[in-house]
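Lecture notes, unit on binding sites. The following record was shown on slide 14. It pairs a sequence with cobalamin.
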Amino acid sequence: MSREEAYRRLEAKARELGADLFGVADLRGKSLKVLELPEDICNRLPYGISMGIALCSGVIEEIVDHPTLFYLHHYRQANYILDQMAFRISKMIEEMGGKALPIAASQIVDWERQQAHFDHKTLAELAGLGWRGRNNLLVTPKYGARVRLVSILTDLPLRVDGPYRGPRCGDCTSCIEACPVGAIKEDPKDFDHIRCFEKLKEFRRKYNVGQYICGICIKACGPKL
Ligand code: B12
C-alpha cells in the first residue's frame, strides 16, 4: 500500500470516529521526548499522527468566570472519544502491518513538572493543524483553541503534512485580557503554568468539578475564519 493510500484510510476512519482534525508529521530529528521511553523512540516510531475534536460552542460560550458542570461533562466525553479514536486507529495501523503507540489525551505523568508522556500541541503544530497561540494552546483557523487533541506514534510509512504556515494570532490579545490570574503573556514561552494550575486547583475545590479545568482562555479564542 502506498503512503498516500495508508494516510487516506486512517484519516477516513478517524473522521468516521469523530475527528474534526487530522494530520501527520515526520518526527525524525525533531528531538521530541516521550517520558518513560528511551530517547530514540521518535526514530523508531517516526510518524506522529495528531487528531483533534472541536468542542461545542453551546458549552464553551456559557462559561463566564469558572468551569461549569456542562463543561466538565463535555471535557470528559471529549477525552473519552479521543482515547477511543487513538486506540482504534492504533489497532487499524497494526492490522495494516505497522506498530502503533497511542498517547492518552489527558494523563499527567510528572505532577511536579506538570508533564504528560508527550506534548500533543507540539505534534499538532508540526502536523499542520494550527499554531501555538499566545494562550500557549494549539490554535486552529477553523475552531480557534476550542479543540482537544490526541496523538499516535507509528512506524507505518505515511504521507506527511508540513508544519503549519498560515496566519497566527496577530494583534489579538483576548486571551491575555480573559485569564483571571494573568497567566497568559505576550509570548507563549512565558506562560505561567504555576499560576494557571493554582487557579485550576481553586476551581476544582470550589465548584466540585473534580478535574483541573477552567475553559476561560478557550472561550476567549473562538473560530478565526
Ligand atoms: C499538564 C497539562 C496542563 C498543566 C500545564 C502544563 C504546562 N506546562 O503548560 C495545567 C494543569 C496547568 C493545564 C492547564 C490547561 N490545559 Co492542559 N494539559 C496538560 C497536559 C496533560 C500535558 C502538557 C505537557 O506535558 N506539557 C509539557 C510542557 C513541557 O509543554 P509546554 O509548557 O507547552 O512547553 C513546551 C512548549 O513551550 C514548546 N513550545 C513552545 N512554543 C513552541 C513552538 C514550536 C514551533 C514548538 C515545536 C514547540 C514550542 O516547548 C516546550 C518544551 O517542549 C496536556 C496533554 C498533553 N499530553 O499534551 C494538556 C493540554 C495541553 N491541556 C489542554 C487544555 C485545554 C488546558 C486548559 C484550558 C484547562 C481546561 N481543559 O479547561 C488549561 C489551559 C492552560 C494554557 N493556556 O496553556 C489541552 C490543550 C488543547 C489545545 N487547543 O491546545 C491539552 C493538549 C489536552 C488535550 N488532550 O487536548 N494543562
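Take-home: The beta strands are 21-26, 47-54, 100-103, 108-110, 115-116, 131-132, 138-139, 147-154.
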